[in-house]
Amino acid sequence: MRKLSSQVQFICILIFFTLGCYTSNDTDKNLLIQQIDHLEKKGLYYWEKRMNPDHAEQAKFFLSKAYEIKPEEDNLAILYSRACYFVGFYIEKIPEKKDSLFLEGYNIAKGIVYHSQSFQKGFNAVTDDSLARELRGIEALGKSSVPALYWWVANLGRYLINKPVVERLNHRDLLETIIHKILSLDPTYFYGGGFRMLGIFYIRLPGTELSKSKQYFDQAILTFPNYLGTKVLLAQYYYTKAEDREHFHRELQEVLLADPTLTPGIMPENMYEQKIAAKLLEEEALLFE
Description:
Elements: H1 2-20, H2 26-48, H3 53-69, H4 74-91, H5 95-114, H6 117-123, H7 130-139, H8 146-160, H9 165-170, H10 172-185, H11 189-203, H12 210-223, H13 228-241, H14 245-257, H15 267-282, H16 284-287
Helix pairs in contact: 1-2, 2-3, 3-4, 4-5, 4-8, 5-8, 6-7, 7-10, 8-10, 8-11, 10-11, 11-12, 11-13, 12-13, 13-14, 13-15, 14-15
């Protein structure tokens, strides 16, 4: 952490002098471009090493600094939002800090959507209340908006997951609209992420049939069985609520026996999911009292 602190100080000083001395001449523009490129490369370098908690934190830091200088670059913003989710979900332990990270990621991804021309066209096409206009804007989006929509709802959903029922219900229309929009545009995005989201979405809302949630979890697993997080969520939320200890145990054992390296792009996520699975198995007796 001392190494990260020194790097933070260095980058902040460099950014200060670069921006503070900025003029309109070509030399200064080139310096700014080089600075953005340096920050992005550092962010990507540490992101690839995110299995290490310190490296995950460093990735988020460098991506955030690059984003501050170049907020209009969507790919950078999406990775920054994803890094907020990763650190918030897998690394951070303090609930208040976790919430802060999820809200940070949510606002970044939402900002991408709001700045798109398609969203603004749909949003301004009606004069109803703000939610109705927001939903109309989402409905107007095309496939290129799927990544931003996904990390918008992933961060917001994770923030809301343990909040009071009333707060979750207040966001129902928005979350449901976004998830179904993702599925209509790209049902395979982030390893069947839309199906996985609906699985957890319906099980965390009162008055929903358990079977409906199970169908979506099954579809997510069918779409991409090597994403271990789906099976962990299925065990943690569905099988505990269904009081099905046998399948809870079996599903998590399968996660522990799986090869997390089969899909290199999500190997860190899969390895962290195996840690969650092991912890849930340790708590099995308490969960099924």
